[in-house]
Amino acid sequence: MEINADFWNDKYTNNETGWDLKSPSTPLKEYIDQIQNKNIKILIPGCGNAYEAEYLLEQGFTAITLVDISEVVVEKINQKFKNNPNIKVIHQDFFELDGQFDLILEQTFFCALPPNLRQDYSIKVNQLLAKDGKLVGVMFNRDFGNDFPPFGGNKTEYETYFNDYFDFKVMEKCYNSIPPRAENELFINLKKKPK
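Structure tokens predicted for Thiopurine S-methyltransferase (TPMT):
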């Protein structure tokens, strides 16, 4: 099984989206709530149904970029956010994306990538972040034993991917996960290292 645009298009077309919370994740909502500057450039890779983007808009953020490889998803969120000048929706492979962002929000994108792409993810996030930029989000803190998404992991493993590029402000168990994910998520707040 190849995990590509067709794979994700099929998942969304057939409504096989068990990871979909139908709302923004609580850890990300609480992080977003404390951000003062509403004009920072924010990227949400593998944005899916973009609940976090909806929440960002409700909170007054003005520079949100969404990227997803699935044209099914992109068509849906283009309709959701049409004519909104504060959101840019891009249909593209994350690894081919260009730009500079102050904040990258991670919510179920990293765990959807095959594990052999995790180091590449760390490198790409580092490239996309502006000086003092942050990667903030939620990662699974358990092994699923799958050969398909979601792919789990743990703090020790994740540290190996991010140590070279980021200062770890926070990487700890989420205290505010939704009940089905309690004890199985890590909240991360990683700041890009100076060059």
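The domain at 28-43+60-65+100-192 is CATH 3.40.50.150 (Rossmann fold).
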